[in-house]
Structure formats: C-alpha cells, structure tokens
Write a structure and sequence with these properties.
It contains 4 helices and no strands. It is mainly alpha-helical and about 140 residues long.
Length: about 140
C-alpha cells in the first residue's frame, strides 16, 4: 500500500491515536482514583468500627455494623477496580452503585457521632469518586 494516496493526512491518524491514548490514560487514572478513595474509606470505616465496643447501645451497634459493612463493600469495590483482566462493565457498574449507596448511608450514620467526621468525609469522597467513575462508564 506504500505510495497510495488515501486522501487523509497522516496527522489525522496520529491525532486520533493520541486522543485514544489520552482517553485510555484518563480512564485508568480515574479508575485508580476511585480505587484509592475506596481504600481510604474502607480503612477509615474499619477503624471507626473497631473503636466501638460490641454490645453497646443500639446506636453504637448501628455505627459498628455500618462501619464494618462500609469497609467490606469498599474493599470489594477496590479489588474489582484493581483487577487487570477483562470485566463485565455491567457488573462493575452495579458494584460501584452499591458502593455509592453504602457510603452515603454510612456517612449519615457517622455524622451523628462526634469524632466520626473524618470517616463521614472519607465515605462521601468515596461515593463521589465512584459516581464520577460511573459517569465515565456510560
């Protein structure tokens, strides 16, 4: 095919390839940011849950259970985002939506407890990162 004039300048191919490469890099960076937010939230929620004695008041028990659930969901989401093999995009979207829901619910519970403000913030940051990554998948 050498010497054949396709009518398209070489720059179009290069620009298109560069744009695709930049989109891939941005996708991977956003995926990593979401996984990192999930990790931070899991760590904060697990720590908050560990500070509550089992068998406490009903509100304390809710705080402990919510912290454990949030840590588990965020950890599972991070692991799913970190997998290198091909994944079902629909399954990833469902996991991310579940993470958003659990994080926001957990943040509301943490808001009611003095000293849990940073954990609530970590939950909201995670929910936001997951929502932003969901938007990229659509």
């Amino acid at each position: 095919m050498a010497g054949v004039d396709t009518g398209y300048p070489i720059e179009v191919t290069t620009t298109s390839s560069t744009a695709s490469q930049q989109e891939l890099i941005q996708f991977l960076e956003d995926r990593f940011a979401c996984a990192q937010a999930c990790t931070e939230c899991a760590r904060a929620a697990a720590l908050r849950a560990s500070l509550v004695d089992p068998g406490g008041s009903e509100e304390q028990e809710l705080l402990r259970r919510r912290g454990i659930m949030c840590a588990e969901v965020c950890d599972a989401t991070c692991r799913m985002l970190s997998e290198q093999n091909s994944q079902d995009e629909a399954a990833l979207r469902v996991q991310l939506e579940w993470c958003v829901s659990v994080c926001l619910d957990s943040a509301h519970v943490f808001d009611r407890h003095p000293g849990a403000e940073q954990t609530a913030d970590a939950c909201r940051t995670c929910a936001k990162a997951c929502q932003e990554f969901i938007a990229i998948l659509r």
